[in-house]
Design brief:
The complex is a heterodimer. Chain A has one domain. Helices cover about 75% and strands about 0% of the residues of chain A. The longest helix of chain A has about 35 residues. Chain A is globular. The chains are: A mainly alpha, B mainly alpha.
Chain lengths: ~240, ~55
């Protein structure tokens, strides 16, 4: 097995060019999937037998919540790779993830509150799922605050990576919170072992939104990654070509 | 159309949820592009200072 691909992925000029070329390949499918998913979720899917049209919040709430966890996991893995192999590009990936993840964690909390009020009778409850998701938001904000507080990029990379890696224990806690403890929040109906417990007409738009948001994340990450890579390469000669275009 | 906008009486919850999420989606694109433009301008400025830009 050759490791050249791995070494190339650690090379800033290669990654900068690759990210620029790949971005549209993720952005356009994401846009199509999200538009189709919105149409399917808002128009085609039938109303829920208990929640009526209120259940349609799922098409923005579940993808936001998925993003909050998936982006954090990506960030923690990239941070660990950066710590272990001292790869600058990996730290750049981790740093790029944080603002995206934080904003979608915020969206998951707000859309969840807007769903909770009509269905549970409350916007907020100090419930295991809701509280652990709020902790996730604080982890993201702590990570960003820590980075912003350290001027030296290398030191910021290492300190914030440690926080990201330690904080990853919260991810399974959030996911399993609804099965480990009594929670107002429902148990998973899609991300579970066995068949989903949601009808196909409702499920399909949801899967499109989940995939669309995931591709969207990669596209936004690639744009941010180029910015982070540039900021880390103060003197390299390839930058001249990269920014002269 | 009115029926669609009414969302079976849940309009006050459904539409704000969609609005918040789509705002976050759009803002992330704007922020990412702005960050890249800033980094590029910053890199250009550094090259200018060192007189290295062709």
């Amino acid at each position: 097995m050759t490791w050249t691909w791995f070494h190339r992925l650690a090379s800033p000029p290669y990654v900068y060019g690759l990210a620029a070329r790949l971005t549209p390949w993720f952005a356009w499918p994401a846009a199509l999937l999200i538009v189709a998913g919105l149409w399917g979720g808002l128009v085609l899917a039938p109303p829920d037998y208990q929640q009526g049209d209120g259940f349609r919040i799922i098409y923005v709430h579940a993808p936001s919540a998925w993003m909050s966890l998936m982006v954090y996991t990506t960030m923690a893995v990239a941070a660990a790779v950066g710590l272990i192999w001292r790869i600058k590009v990996a730290h750049a990936v981790a740093a790029s993830c944080a603002p995206i993840g934080a904003s979608f964690t915020f969206a998951a909390l707000v859309t969840g509150a807007l769903w909770g009020e009509p269905m549970w009778g409350t916007y907020w409850e100090w419930d295991p799922r809701l509280t652990s998701e709020l902790v996730l938001l604080f982890l993201y904000l702590g990570y960003m605050g820590l980075r912003a507080g350290i001027d030296d990029t290398q030191r910021a990379d290492r300190a914030s990576a440690l926080l990201a890696v330690v904080g990853v224990v919260n991810v399974p806690i959030i996911h399993y919170s609804v099965t480990w403890w009594n929670s107002l929040h429902q148990a998973p109906s899609v991300m579970r072992l066995g068949k989903p417990t949601i009808s196909a007409a409702m499920l399909l738009p949801l899967l499109m939104m989940l995939l669309g948001f995931t591709l969207y994340f990669v596209a936004v990450l690639l744009v941010r990654l180029r910015s982070e890579v540039l900021a880390r390469e103060r003197t390299a000669s390839w930058i001249r070509e990269a920014v002269s275009a | 159309m009115k029926e669609f906008l009414d969302m079976g009486g849940y309009a006050a919850f459904v539409w704000p949820a969609y609005l918040v999420t789509l705002t976050v989606v759009v803002l992330n694109i704007v922020w990412a592009r702005r960050a890249l433009a800033r980094s590029r301008a910053e890199a250009r400025r550094r090259l200018d200072v060192r007189g290295e830009r062709p």
